[in-house]
C-alpha cells in the first residue's frame, strides 16, 4: 500500500451490491405478518374539519385499526420546531393527524392500518370526513396582502418570519454610489423527487421491550431521540436503522413526518409489524418541497463596475408550516453576495405561509435562489456599464490574498458570521474563460447567426457554505480475526459513496486496502452519537472525525507493533495490512496485532497463532490490561467544526436557442469546481454531475404546479418534468483544489454544489442568444419555451 | 397507488372476449396496459372487470393487404415500428413512432390500445388521421369499420361503444411517389407532444395531407392549410401561408406545459418544417 488512497479515483465499494439489485431498502426488510398503512389526506388546501366518521372503514374486512387525532394519545401534538429563531413568533408546525383544520392538500387526516396496502387504500376511501372548505391564496405576492385569506389565524398577512441583516455600512456606501442596477427575479417551487420515496417500518418486541424502526431517513439518531422522548422509552430500547436509501436530497430529514411517529406507535399498539411505503403521488403531496423565492436585488456600483453595496429584499414561501424555521431563507440571505468583495450588504426577507406542502431544505437550500439573484444582477450591471460579463466579475471577485473574508453581521445557518475561508476565485474564472474560448465566442456567435443559428454563452459563479456543525464522531476497530477495519459514524448514506471515501481516509493511516475498510452507518445500535447527513457536511465533519480516530488507532497499532517486533516505534511502518520494520522483511499482520492486544485469545484462529510468534503487544507488570489500557485496536473521536467552510465554483455553457420552437439546446457545459482537497475525484465528479442534472431540472423543467384552489396538479412524472439523461448535457468538470484551512483534511463539502448556479447559467445564455431579437431579460426559472415565446413576441 | 378490486378475465376467443366485455357495464379491455394500469393504480379508472385480450386468437400481427397496413389489436408498438415491410409501405409510421414514449413502453404498449385511449396529444391517433386510416370495432352487433375522422371525438373519447373491441387499425400505404414527414416538439424526449405534425405530400395528385396532435381536444386535420397547398406549387410563400393558417387549429387553452400563444407559434413552425421535408422526399 505504497500509494495514497486519499485523492485517488477509487471505485465505489457499494456499487457492485446496488448494481446487482442486492441492496436492501426499507420495503425489502422481511417482516412476517406486517400490517400496511394508507393515509386519508385532505382534499382541500384549507378547511375546517367538522367530523370524521371512521365506522365504515373500521368495519371493512382486513382493517386492523383506523386512527384519527383523537386516538393517537400523546402523539396528538404539534411536532417540534427544529431551529427556533427570534424572527419567528409562534412558529407553526404540523400535527401527525389533522385536528380541527387542514392546511394543505395532502395533509394527513386519518391513518388506516390493514392486512395489505390494497385493503388499506380501499378502507381509506371509506373514511367520511366532513369538511368546510375555506378561501385560499396560493400566489406568494398576493398572500401577504391585507385582503388575503389567512393560513393561520395567528399570523396576519401570512407572515411567518421577517428578518433583516446588515453587514458593513450600506447606507453610507449607497449614498456614494455612481450607478444602481435593480433586478427582480423569481425561482419556482420544485421537489427532490428521490428515486425511492420515503418509507418507515416498525416492530415492537414485547419481551425485550425494544422498538425497532427501519426508516429511509437521513437522520436516524435524531429520529430515535424523538421517538424515545414521545413514546417514553429508554433511548437504548429504540433502534432506528436507515438501510439502503434511494436518494434523499434533504427531503428525508424533517423530524418528523407524521408516518415516522405513527407507524412505530401503531406497531406498539397493535403488537404486529407495521409498514408504510410512500407512493409517488404521496411523495408529491406529502413530503417537503423547496425553492419559491422572489428577490428584488439592487447593486450599487462605481462607474468602474466595482460594487460597493448590495440591497436585497425577498419573499420566501414556507408552505403551510415552518418546521425548519428560517434555515432556507437564512442560507439564501447570507449567500447573497456570492464570491464578490461587496463590503456593504443589507438583506431582508419575509417568510410567508401558503396553504401548500411545507417547505424544508432541498439540495441547494436557498443557495440556487441567492445565486440566481446576484448573478442575474451582475450580468445586468455589466450590460448597463458596457462591460463584459467576465470583466465585471474580475473587478469584484475576492482576491486570493484577501481570505479569510468576514461578512460581519450576516449569521449563517450555524449561527456564526459568514467567513469565506479560502479560494482561487480569479483563477477559476480564467479557467472557465479559457475552456470556453470566450475571447473567440463573439465571432463564433456572429458566424452562427449568419447561418440562422442563435448561440448564447451563459455563466454564473457561486459559493457554498458547507460542513456545518455541531459535530460528528468516528469509531474505528481493527478486527482481531480478519484484520479488516470497521468504521462507524452517525451519518447515513443515500448513495453518496461514504463507504468509499471514509475507507480511503482510514486506509492511508492504517496501511490497509480500501476494500478492507468496512463502513457501518445508519444504525443507532452501531453508533449513536452524531447528527445527520445534510448541508454538504459528511466529508467535512464525519471525514475529519474518522481521520482523528484513525490517527489514534494508528498510534496504538504502531506502539503494539513496536513491542511485538522489538523495534523502535519510529522504525515501524504500516502497509499491506501489516506493520513492518522499515527496510526489513520483518512484519506482523494487523490481525495478529489486534489479537495480541486482546488478553483473551481464540486459540483456533490463525491470527492468534501468528500472534504467539511475537513478543507481547504490551509490556508491563501486573494484570493483563494495564491501568488505562483498553483491549484491541480501537478508538472513537469526534470533530466539531469551528464554522462552515466555503466551497465555490463557476459554470459556463454554450447553448443554442431555436426561436421557432422556442427550445434550448445546451451544446457545451463546463464546470470549474473547488471543494478543497478531494478525497476521491471520481466521487466528487459524480456529486457535481448529479447536482448539475438536478440544476438542469430546476433551470428548465421542474415546476410544482398548484391551481388557484391549491391542488397540486402535476403530482406525477408525466407532468412534473424531471430531466432524463436525454435532457442533461455532457458536462466538462475541471477541478481546483484550495485546501480549507479550517480542518485537518483540508476538505470542503460538495453534495449540493452542482445544482446551485445552473438556473443562472441557462438564463444568462438564453438572454445572450436572443439579444439580437431584443427579447429582453430572463428573470425566472424554470425557463420554459412558453417564456421564450412570450419574450420574443413582446420584443 | 393500488387499484381497487376488479375481476380479471383472460378469454381465448374473440367471441368470448366480446361476451365478457358486454356482460358487465363496468368492464374494460386490457391490451398492453401502459395507460390503463397506471390509471387504475391512481384510482382514476376503476373497472369492475378487465378483459385481457392478449391470449385471444387472431388478434396478433400485422399484414399488408389491398393497400392497407392491417394492425391487429395485440400488436405492440415496437413490432410495427421495426417491421421492414411496414417501413417500405409507409415510412411515416416509423418516423412517427420514434416519438411514442420510450422503448420499454413501446415494447409493451399496443398501437390499437393507444388509438382507443385517444389521448389528444398522442402520436398514433394522429398518424391514423393523417393517413386517412380507419379502425374496426367488433361487438355483440357484429363488426364495423369507422374512419379515423369519425372515430376521435374528444380527449380520451371515441365512437367505440363500451361493448366493442377494436380488433384492427388500418393504415393506408403511402401513395406512390408521395413524400412524408413527422415533426414534433416535446419538453423532454419521449413526452406527449406539445404539438406534432404529420405531412404527406402527393405531387401527382396535387394533394397535401396534414394532421396535428397536442393542439386541440383531439387529433385534427389541418384543413385550412391543406386547402392552401392543394393543387399549387409549394413555394416558400405558399408554405408560409399554410403554416400561418394552421394556427387556427389550436384550441388548447394555456396549460402547465405551454401557453395557447406559444402552441400556435410552434404549430406554425412545425407545419412549415413538415411540409418542406415531405416535399423534399416526394418524387
From TrEMBL, chain A:
GO MF, any single term: oxidoreductase activity
Keywords (A to Z) from UniProt: Molybdenum, Oxidoreductase
Gene3D superfamilies given in the database record: Aldehyde oxidase/xanthine dehydrogenase, a/b hammerhead (3.90.1170.50), Aldehyde oxidase/xanthine dehydrogenase, molybdopterin binding domain (3.30.365.10)
Ranges for domain Aldehyde oxidase/xanthine dehydrogenase a/b hammerhead: 20-135
InterPro entries to which the protein is assigned, alphabetical: Ald_Oxase/Xan_DH_a/b, Ald_Oxase/Xan_DH_a/b_sf, Ald_Oxase/xanthine_DH-like, AldOxase/xan_DH_MoCoBD1, AldOxase/xan_DH_MoCoBD2, AldOxase/xan_DH_Mopterin-bd_sf
Pfam families, per database record: Ald_Xan_dh_C, MoCoBD_1, MoCoBD_2
Protein name, entry field: Xanthine dehydrogenase
The organism's taxonomic lineage, starting at the top: Bacteria, Pseudomonadati, Pseudomonadota, Alphaproteobacteria, Hyphomicrobiales
Automatic annotation (TrEMBL), chain B:
SUPFAM superfamilies to which the protein is assigned, alphabetical: CO dehydrogenase flavoprotein C-terminal domain-like (SSF55447), FAD-binding/transporter-associated domain-like (SSF56176)
Pfam families associated with the record: CO_deh_flav_C, FAD_binding_5
Keywords from the UniProt entry: FAD, Flavoprotein, Oxidoreductase
FAD-binding PCMH-type domain mapped to chain residues: 1-176
Organism: Kumtagia ephedrae
Keyword Flavoprotein (UniProt): yes
Superkingdom per UniProt: Bacteria
The protein's name: FAD-binding PCMH-type domain-containing protein
GO MF entries: FAD binding; oxidoreductase activity
